[in-house]
């Protein structure tokens, strides 16, 4: 049909990591003589590195780390390709190579067309400059000419909804306004090939919907798009084909539906690891604060089995409680916690929100557990994955979020025997009441009076 | 499709300099940003560009002329001699300091967007040049004050301005590239600037250097630039020592070549190292 826009052949990228083998350095109770001996040894090694033109690595021992290993794929002109994978799978490294920010160690990439890459929203925004000035600055950084920007200026401003604050320095903007303005500039780029990394997870729900709309219109304009996201629903809507990266290797390449399902099933291992290690390192986080007031430590179902390898099973139609353990550093006032459940096809099925609260959550510092009890869950049998959002204020900006966390599996062991088990309720079933009555004529017949 | 880009290890783009031309908008915008931001939230704003060289001149005149009793070039007023020396020196030192930190200061850009990295340090030098132009206005005022008329030598002034720019860009690129990898240079640069003002003939005339050492002295590229500035602006009382100028220019070209080479060689790994 069409020529290839991007061809990637045997692409690999190696990083060198330095380790301190001496345990004393971590304990900090190193004595002066040892410190001098080690410093001298390291100085010798660093000098020889510099002389031979090698990289200089801190530490006593050097380890090779392959962020990407023999990656091959092709993107056709006008195709929208999704790239998914867990944290540290090599997605960002791949995008950085494709955007020419860093060079590969081996292999080659051939790109036909003008590329614009959006690896972050608001790259190069300067806090001291006004919104207007930042539009020009950010536009130029993303490769637009001043003439382009001037032509689209009104559109950008209208999209960002910050007209009134155009001449205010962006350091006075709220975080929502900041990301809206930043996305607005990026959304008006018109390259032949667009590389996008996770820019949709910004702003409030209404603005996210607007961003999604813009992205799908870009995808329909027959432009080549590489789309990295952890929002499986977005990947499935926007892309037809996806690749799955795991530890620097492509482990699935095919229709997005299949690849997304494949990915979600593999997150089970990560869950087991997270529960054993009591941290959620392996999962995708979303943070919009540099120094968040609280972090999510653990997510689980109350009374879950001790075995971290198996997903807790919830009987169809039963009650259960989700427990979210938080590490709170600074008090949270008027906060919000929301859990969105996604099925194994990556479709967001339902959001669990405590709608009866007038004020938000108030949490004091310390390690705290928030319990969210859910009555009568009638989700169709199958695996469910959670997105957990923690907002310190009810303004839609999260201070921590965990994505694609395998939460529970809904099963039906036979206690529910009626129609709720039927396969046509593939997403959600609800108990309803039956009653049978005689059909009556809508217009009551006029009774003829017997005379 | 219009343009094909191939990405491989160690591959230099054939159209690197063309790319710089294509990204000239970014170059203007970065320079404009730095100029716009430089004096934001200060009370006297751009007046700082006037005050710094002016006070340097006052102090150097007092120290070198009144206290150390060094001679001027012929009848040239000593403050004028010092100020003409301060101009290129301030440009060089601010340019070098700002450029060498420019890549680290723009680390977020380097790790998120592609563009020819040369743009960043050169934009910093341009900002320093803007300060140079402001300070030049004081010089014109001083020349009126002392009723000092430049001779035909002033026609060669642009040559030395170009030399000053080249003398700043060369070492800046070299140190910038090294600074990304070895942060030692962040400590070395202020030291160079601190000592350089005494090694270079800023507060005195280079004619007081003994003749047998004059050529060696000219290995410092700034010597050639300052001598040239004085010869052009202050007229015939300052003698142009031609072998020295030639040597300084050769050193400037050498540093420029070294700087560009070092920068190009390490440019691709900046995003990984920064």
Q: Please, could you describe this protein's structure?
A:
The complex is a heterodimer of chains A (451) and B (274). Chain A has 451 residues and is of the alpha/beta class. In chain A, 26% of the residues lie in helices and 31% in strands. Chain A has nine helices and 18 strands. Chain A has a six-stranded mixed β-sheet, with helices on both faces. In chain A, strands 11, 13, 14, 15, 17 and 18 form a six-stranded mixed β-sheet that branches. In chain A, a hairpin with a 4-residue loop joins β13 and β14 (348-352). The radius of gyration of chain A is 27 Å and the shape is globular. Residues 24-29 of chain A have low confidence and may be disordered. Chain B starts with a strand and ends with a helix. The model of chain B has no long low-confidence stretch (mean pLDDT 87). Chain B is globular. By secondary structure, chain B is mostly helical. Chain A binds chain B through residues 3, 5, 15, 50, 55-56, 77, 96-115, 117, 119-120, 123-124, 126, 128-129, 133, 136-137, 140-146, 192, and chain B through 1-11, 23, 25-26, 28-30, 33, 36-37, 40-41, 106, 108-115, 181-182, 268-269, 271-273.
Question: What's the gist of this structure?
Answer:
The complex is a heterodimer of chains A (451) and B (274). Chain A is an alpha/beta fold and 451 residues long.
Feature tags:
heterodimer, A: 451 residues, alpha/beta, 6-stranded mixed β-sheet, 9 helices, 18 strands, B: 274 residues, mainly alpha, globular
Largest interface: A-B, 46 and 38 residues
Provide the spatial order of strands within the biggest beta sheet of chain A.
Answer: 5-6-7-3-8-9
| Low-confidence spans of chain A | 24-29
> What is the count of β-strands of chain B?
1
Elements of chain B, N to C (H/E): EHHHHHHHHHHHH
**Topology of chain A as a string of helices (H) and strands (E):** EHHEEHEEHHHEHEHEEHEEEEEEEEE
């Amino acid at each position: 049909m069409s020529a290839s826009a991007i061809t990637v052949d045997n692409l690999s990228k190696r990083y060198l990591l330095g380790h301190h083998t001496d345990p004393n350095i971590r304990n900090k109770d190193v004595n002066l003589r040892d410190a001098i001996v080690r410093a001298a040894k390291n100085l010798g090694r660093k000098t020889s590195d510099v002389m031979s033109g090698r990289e200089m690595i801190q530490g006593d021992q050097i380890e090779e780390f392959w962020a990407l290993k023999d990656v091959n794929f092709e993107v056709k002109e006008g195709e929208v390709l999704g790239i998914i994978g867990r944290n540290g799978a090599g997605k960002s490294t791949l995008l950085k190579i494709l955007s020419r920010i860093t060079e590969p160690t081996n292999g080659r990439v051939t790109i036909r067309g003008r590329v614009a890459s959006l690896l972050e929203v608001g790259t190069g925004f300067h806090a001291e400059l006004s919104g207007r000035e930042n539009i020009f600055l950010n536009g130029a950084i993303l490769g637009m000419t001043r003439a382009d920007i001037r032509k689209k200026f009104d559109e950008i401003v209208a999209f960002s909804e910050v007209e009134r604050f155009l001449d205010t320095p962006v350091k006075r903007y709220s975080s929502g306004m900041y990301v809206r303005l930043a996305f607005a500039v990026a959304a008006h780029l018109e390259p032949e090939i667009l590389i996008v990394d996770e820019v949709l997870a910004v702003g409030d729900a209404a603005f996210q919907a607007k961003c999604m709309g813009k992205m799908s219109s870009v995808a329909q304009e027959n432009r080549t798009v590489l789309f990295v996201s952890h929002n499986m629903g977005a990947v499935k809507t926007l892309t037809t084909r996806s690749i799955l990266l795991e530890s620097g290797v492509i482990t699935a390449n095919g229709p997005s539906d299949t690849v997304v399902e494949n990915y979600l099933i593999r997150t089970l291992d990560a869950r087991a690891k997270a529960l054993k290690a009591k941290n959620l390192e392996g999962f995708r986080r979303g943070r919009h604060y540099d120094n968040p007031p609280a972090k999510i430590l653990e997510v689980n179902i109350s009374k879950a089995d001790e075995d971290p390898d198996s997903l807790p099973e919830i009987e169809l139609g039963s009650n259960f409680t989700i427990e979210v353990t938080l590490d709170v550093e600074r008090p949270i006032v008027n906060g919000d916690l929301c859990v969105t459940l996604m099925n194994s096809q990556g479709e967001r099925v339902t959001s669990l929100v405590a709608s009866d609260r007038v004020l938000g959550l108030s949490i004091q510092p310390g390690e705290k557990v928030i319990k969210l009890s859910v009555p009568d869950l009638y989700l169709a049998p199958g695996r469910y994955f959670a997105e957990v959002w923690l907002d310190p204020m009810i303004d839609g900006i999260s201070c921590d979020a965990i994505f694609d966390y395998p939460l529970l599996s809904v099963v039906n062991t036979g206690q529910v025997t009626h129609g709720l088990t039927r396969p046509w309720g593939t997403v959600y079933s609800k108990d309803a009441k039956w009653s049978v009555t005689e059909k009556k004529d809508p217009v009551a017949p006029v009774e003829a009076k017997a005379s | 499709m219009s343009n094909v880009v191939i990405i491989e290890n160690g591959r230099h783009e054939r159209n690197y300099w063309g790319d710089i031309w294509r990204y000239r908008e970014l170059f203007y915008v970065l320079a404009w940003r730095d100029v716009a931001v430089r004096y934001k939230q200060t009370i006297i704003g751009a007046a700082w560009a006037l005050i710094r060289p002016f006070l340097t001149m006052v102090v150097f005149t007092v120290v070198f002329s009144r206290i150390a009793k060094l001679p001027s070039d012929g009848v040239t007023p000593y403050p004028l001699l010092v100020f003409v020396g301060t101009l290129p020196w301030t440009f060089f030192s601010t340019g070098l300091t700002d450029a060498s930190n420019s890549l680290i200061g723009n680390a977020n850009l380097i790790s998120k967007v592609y563009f020819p990295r040369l743009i960043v340090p050169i934009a910093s030098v341009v900002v320093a040049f803007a300060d140079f132009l402001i300070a030049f206005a004081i010089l014109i005022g001083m020349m009126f004050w002392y009723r000092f008329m430049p001779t035909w030598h002033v026609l060669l002034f642009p040559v030395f301005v170009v030399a000053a720019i080249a003398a700043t860009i060369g070492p800046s690129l070299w140190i910038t590239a090294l600074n990304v990898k070895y942060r030692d240079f962040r400590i070395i640069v202020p030291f160079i600037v601190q000592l350089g003002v005494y090694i270079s003939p800023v507060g005195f005339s280079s004619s007081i250097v003994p003749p047998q050492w004059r050529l060696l002295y000219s290995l410092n590229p700034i010597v050639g630039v300052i001598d040239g500035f004085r010869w052009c602006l202050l007229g015939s009382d300052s003698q142009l020592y031609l072998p020295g100028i030639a040597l300084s220019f050769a050193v400037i070209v050498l540093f420029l070549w070294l700087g560009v080479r070092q920068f190009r060689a390490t440019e691709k790994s900046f995003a990984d190292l920064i």
